[in-house]
Write a structure and sequence with these properties.
Layout (H helix, E strand, L loop, with lengths): L1 H28 L10 H9 L5 H34 L7 H22 L5 H4 L1 H6 L4 H28 L6 H38 L1
Helix pairs in contact: 1-2, 1-3, 2-3, 2-7, 3-7, 4-7, 7-8
């Protein structure tokens, strides 16, 4: 059954083509439950078999991710704050905590947006606080795009490796590779955050001096 599912995913992505990658990744990057693990690895698998260009697939996946994230951003920036202020108490979110979140994104939105795109669950939601804080769009697109491109590249590589090895694109195999990739990114993320904290404190001291 898992083998049939893998073949169906590959056939579906092959039929939908690059436009399908854009559309599905746009849904994945918004609040709709379309896992990227069902989109990009089949594209990588097809690339390994000569059915797709891996660089075009990466560009399409990144573009779709940006489109979906931008949709979240627009909704949050235009109507989100009102909704959270009015109904946030039902999920233990006060207006004061919302204001703290907005101030945090005003100062650290870039690093939060970039890192958030690298991890499951968080990447679907990170554009919402960015929209609430009205993060500058040029920075939002830059850091969202960078994080999305890395994640899409990881998933494409997983599909490409499985395809080159002659394996079956079973979902459980993809999930195993994905877990390993996420675990590998944790220490790199810690180093990135430590470097950012050092840079930010140094910049703050210079301004104060």
């Amino acid at each position: 059954m898992l083998e049939r599912l893998g073949l169906w995913l590959v056939e579906t992505i092959g039929t939908l083509g690059y436009a399908g990658i854009v559309g599905l990744m746009a849904l994945e990057s918004s609040v709709f439950p379309v896992p990227a693990e069902l989109v990009m690895p089949p594209a990588g698998y097809l690339a390994a078999k000569g059915g797709m260009n891996i660089f075009i697939a990466l560009a399409c996946g990144t573009a779709g991710s940006l489109l979906g994230a931008w949709a979240n951003y627009v909704v949050a920036s235009r109507v989100g704050r009102w909704v959270f202020v009015r109904y946030g108490r039902w999920v233990l979110l006060t207006e004061r905590s919302l204001e703290r979140t907005e101030r945090f994104f005003a100062s650290h939105g870039e690093i939060a947006t970039f890192i958030g795109r690298l991890f499951p669950v968080i990447r679907h939601l990170i554009s919402i606080p960015a929209g609430l804080a009205r993060m500058r769009l040029d920075r939002f697109f830059l850091y969202t795009g960078a994080g999305a491109a890395i994640w899409c590249a990881v998933l494409l590589a997983i599909g490409w490796i499985i395809g080159k090895a002659g394996g079956t694109l079973a979902r459980e195999v993809v999930q195993t590779y994905t877990r390993h990739a996420v675990l590998a990114m944790v220490p790199l993320t810690i180093l990135l955050i430590a470097g950012y904290v050092w840079w930010y404190r140094r910049r703050t001291r210079r301004k104060d001096g």
